[in-house]
Amino acid sequence: MFSSEFWFKTLELLASLSILVFVHELGHFMWARIFKVGVEKFYLFFDAYHFALLRWNKKGLHLLDVIHFPSLVNPSDTEYGIGWVPLGGYCAIVGMVDETHDSSQADFDRPDAFVKKGKFAQFMIMVGGVLNNLIFAVLIYIGMSWHYGKDILEPRNLPYGVSYSQLAQSIGFQDGDVIVAIDGKEIADFNSIPTNLLLGNNVTVDRGGESLTFVLPDTLGTHFLAYKEELAGFIHVRMPMVIGDMLENSAAAQAGMEIGDSILAIDSVPTPYDYQVREQLAAHIGDTVSVMYARAGGSIIGVARVYLAQKQAPLGIVQKNVIGPECLTHIDYTLAEAIPVGFQNGWNMLYNYVRQFKLVFTKEGAKELGGFGTMGSLFPESWNWKMFWSLTAFFSVALAFMNILPIPALDGGHIMILIIEAIIRRPLSDRFKDIIQYIGFGFILLLLVLVNLNDIIKFFFQTIFIS
């Protein structure tokens, strides 16, 4: 039913989230230990129905709750384990009303109970998971900067310049404009332009040596969410259409074209750049067209008659990327240099994530909400350490931000209760905490169902549409 690609991406996502859940819960655990608050259980995944893959407690080590090693005793009061439901994990803190205990189950009388400690200790225990996720993301960015360095494609280094879509031109862009700043922030890397455009208010371009600034429409971000393909096509890196590969028995192959050929014109319309080739091909689906091309090196000019039968890849070719390493500026960092870069990357990721969050409350943004399917689709089809850690850092920032939201059952909800109690100088009733905890937990479950249902709907809709 599901392809090997699906299962591979599922394992990548599970590995990433497992690391992040462990790091998050470790934050609560560490601060609880610092303030001498008891921790009953520390689990990766959930041991639903009292079954776990692994338990380690004072009675020994248990595998699948069947195999028992009584000699391998855990000397601490905390039971460590791995559950069987891979949807998160938990750190059960003594004397605390949370997703693991309601007020009837929490042991408030123990001297190491959460409620026996001061508000500062309680606050640090609650915020510990969020802090760990943010610190972990920064550490990943530091490590990646140190190990991989950074390749920057400077807009001014593009050998053929850029061109803009009709939407971009209606806003004020012109072919050849070099974007130098968005919202006053210098654009050093061409690849950062789409994200910044999604959130930008104004843009500064260099047009033939003259600096111009104009305002972007307020609706541009939501428009891109509704029409994602327009964000990718808003600005084009101009390149000649050089054939890098082609499908067997493709229209191009049958017409005698070869790898390395450059397409110059479609039906006598000059197409020096790749986007012009695509526009002309799209306008002639179902027709037979003449394709003028140059053989590698430009020594041979040929004209092929090609019937364009299909909408997707009508010529059956794969474009060769001619923007080579010479157009990139590679920066290597020492460990000392990578540290501030890692902090800056972590801050930029958090800042952009928070800014994009406002789009969730628009109609288009709500449609794009996704769950595990959307997250898994971001991973590559084969193992790539750089991509894995990059996505893990992104998810770590997202997890930190989502957890700090003042929603009951999340860390932010617990922190909100602590702040209220500090203001009114008395604890809220256990009954009230139970009620809002149930409401928050129900809301989170409903949200999980909705976002994953959205994934399922998009998956089946796309499958039907493509077929």
Instruction: State the oligomer.
Output: single chain
Number of E-state strands: 20
The portion of residues assigned to helices is: 40-55%
**What is the residue-mean pLDDT, rounded to a whole number?**
84
Beta-strand content bin: 15-25%
Over all CA atoms, what is the radius of gyration?
28 Å
Tally of DSSP helical segments: 14
For the biggest β-sheet, the strand order reads: 4-3-2-5-1-6
Protein structure class: alpha+beta
Distance between the first and last residues' Cα: 16 Å
The coarse silhouette is: elongated
The largest sheet is:
6 strands, mixed
Indicate the low-confidence ranges by residue numbers: 462-467
What attributes characterize this protein structure?
467 residues; disordered C terminus; single chain; six-stranded mixed sheet; alpha+beta; 21% strand; elongated
